[in-house]
From TrEMBL, chain B:
Names of the cofactor(s): Zn(2+)
Keywords: Metal-binding, Zinc
UniProt domain Alcohol dehydrogenase-like C-terminal: residue ranges: 196-273
A GO molecular-function annotation: metal ion binding
A Pfam family of this chain: ADH_N
The protein's name: Glutathione-dependent formaldehyde dehydrogenase
Stretches of the chain forming a coiled coil according to its record: none
Start and end residues of each Alcohol dehydrogenase-like N-terminal domain: 27-152
Source organism of the structure: Methylobacterium oryzihabitans
Family matches, as InterPro entries: ADH-like_C, ADH-like_N, GroES-like_sf, NAD(P)-bd_dom_sf
Length: 196, 389
């Protein structure tokens, strides 16, 4: 029998783990989000006291709900990228809120600075994660792999066109007869024409 | 034995699992010599198809050597070389007698689940959710083949596994996709998706005599392979598909359209796909129907839409008004593999086509999990992965 094996060599795998490091980082951020969110929901007063922002308990709880929802979405989604972008937006909100506490009379300025540094660190991790996830999805540059010789046919395409014309399309797979004139581009033989 | 086992979303591992054993007199056990990752396996990998359970063995494109046969199976003997069709067929029910093997009435052992989801049962499938029987798949060292006296394609020795393996699924699936179009010599056939099934559909349309084949994708190497097979191509990341198809057909549209994409249309390729992706995330829709919408819109009136691409559940915003008013014919379904394989095996043996052209990667089972990700992300030039256990 004739064989037309592909001439381009078949490759083994390029080393690539089943989960990318960025996907693992995203899952870690998801769990972190849930943990932080629960803390903000359960203990808003203690958190506000620690950073010298009394009276913001309701706002902190709202942030907590946001964190929990985002964390669940990251863990449950097929593609966490948009939810990590959501975290970046949330980080900006957190930093803006923390910025309002930098006043001369804040007795907890040390705690506030620590919290700000932590949020900056997490923001950097979020940005790195989202950039990595986006890069993972990017296609390789065109032209790196050449499959132009992989026709699967033993002869040029034009010589193969219609080679299976001997195949009889089963009756249950044929176009309904009334539609044939339009799909074949010519009137069906023996038909009197198209009804008005 | 070693097998590729589903543990959750994007979590497939090469595990040690119990060897299969004969459970019914019609069974056979094969030692797998080659298997492949199918594009529809990615729907399971990404967990868009419901009905998977942690511990399920993946794979429905498999071939090998018979090593054990049930006492009632007189069709096979130890040492036979067989390709295993992905649809499990009893060969005796009303649908099997009609050649509608993919809707076999007996082989789905979880028929109640299928009846709930689809209204009626469909055939059992290897490694493809508990909706279709929960049968262990063939990405493993050994496979139990239920109803093996009917569920097999005997193949000759002396032809490579790579050339024969795709009789299990993608070759007959691409072929049925083209046959469903009832291609006429003047037809222009547009094919969405240049993955493995799309590539086979392109070759099938050429062999069946289509005047023009136009293939649509965005991955450069897939488009190059499509052109090698005789297709003109449209890169949907560069061009508006509807405009280009209308331009290329003098404004009439293609007579025949084939959807080789299915439920996971590129999520950011168009506004409606992004809309679908958001609805999927909110569990308001299961499938992204971008290709179906585009086909209905661009297909020439009185044309045919053929859908070999896999859909799983509920689709939104289908322009059925256009479908009805244009008088389009829709043909779809899982592949009736054994209906076509006798003819296709002859064409392979006669040298009309060698399906191994599509293979880009060959690996061992232990590399399977990583290759799922490479294939899903279209990295490393990956179009088709063959696994040699």
């Amino acid at each position: 029998m004739s064989q037309t094996h592909a001439r381009t060599p078949v490759r083994g795998p390029t080393p690539r783990p089943a989960h990318s490091g960025h996907a693992r980082l995203a899952r870690g951020l998801g769990w972190f989000s849930i943990g932080l969110g629960l803390a903000e929901l359960i203990a808003p007063r203690a958190l506000c006291r620690a950073i010298g922002l009394p009276g913001r308990e309701t706002l902190v709880q709202a942030y907590g709900a946001r964190e929990v929802a985002t964390g669940i979405a990251i863990l449950a989604s097929h593609d966490p990228t948009p939810w990590i972008w959501g975290r970046v937006g949330g980080d900006a909100l957190d930093l803006a809120t923390l910025a309002t506490g930098y006043e001369h009379d804040n007795p907890r300025i040390g705690g506030l600075a620590l919290a700000t540094a932590a949020v900056v660190g997490v923001t950097l991790a979020d940005v790195a994660c989202v950039q990595g996830l986006t890069a993972d999805k990017r296609l390789p540059p065109p032209g790196r792999f050449d499959y132009a010789d992989r026709s699967g046919f033993p002869r040029p395409v034009d010589a193969m066109r219609g080679q299976a014309a001997d195949f009889a399309v089963p009756a249950d797979f044929r176009i309904p007869e009334p539609l044939r004139p339009w799909t074949s581009g010519a009137p069906a033989s023996g038909r009197s024409g198209v009804p008005a | 034995m070693k097998a590729l086992v589903w543990h959750g979303t994007a979590d497939i591992r090469c595990d040690t699992v119990p060897d299969p054993r004969i459970e019914d007199g019609r069974d056979a056990i094969i030692k797998v010599t080659a298997c492949a990752i199918c594009g529809s396996d990615l729907h399971l990998y990404d967990h868009f198809m419901p009905g998977m359970k942690s511990g399920d063995i993946m794979g429905h494109e498999t071939m090998g050597e018979v090593v054990e046969v049930g006492r009632d199976n007189t069709a096979l003997k130890v040492g036979d070389r067989i390709v295993v069709p992905f649809t499990i067929t009893c060969g005796q029910c009303d649908q099997c007698r009609r050649g509608n093997f993919s809707v076999c009435e007996r082989s789905n052992r979880n028929r109640k689940l299928a009846e709930t989801a689809f209204g009626h049962t469909t055939a059992g499938l290897f490694g493809y959710t508990h909706l279709t029987g929960g049968y262990p798949g063939g990405q493993a060292e050994y496979l139990r083949v239920p109803f093996a006296d009917a569920t097999h394609i005997k193949v000759p020795h002396g032809v490579s596994d790579e050339t024969l393996l795709f009789l299990s699924d993608i070759l007959p699936t691409g072929w049925q996709g083209a046959v469903q179009c009832d291609i006429q010599p003047e037809d222009t056939v547009a094919i969405w998706g240049c993955g493995p099934v799309g590539q086979m559909a392109i070759r099938s349309a050429i062999l069946l005599g289509a005047k023009r084949v136009i293939a649509i994708d965005r991955v450069p190497e897939r488009l190059a392979m499509a052109r090698a097979g005789g297709a003109e191509t449209i890169d949907f990341s560069q061009d508006n598909v509807v405009s280009r198809l209308n331009d290329m057909t003098g404004g009439k549209g293609p007579e025949k359209c084939i959807d080789s994409v299915g439920l996971e249309a590129h999520a950011t390729g168009s506004l409606d796909s992004m809309y679908d992706r958001v609805k999927q995330a909110m569990m308001l829709e299961t499938d992204r129907a971008h290709v179906l919408r585009e086909m209905i819109y661009v297909c020439r009136p009185a044309g045919v839409l053929s859908v070999p691409g896999v859909y799983g559940g509920l689709l939104d915003k289908i322009p059925f008004g256009a479908m009805m008013n244009k008088g389009l014919t829709l043909r779809t379904g899982q592949t009736h593999v054994n209906r076509w394989t006798g003819d296709l095996l002859r064409r392979i043996e006669e040298g009309q086509i060698d399906p191994s052209f599509v293979i880009t990667h060959t690996v061992g089972l232990e590399d399977g999990p990583a290759m799922y990700r490479t294939f899903r992300d279209k990295q490393d030039g990956c179009i088709k992965v063959v696994i040699k256990p």
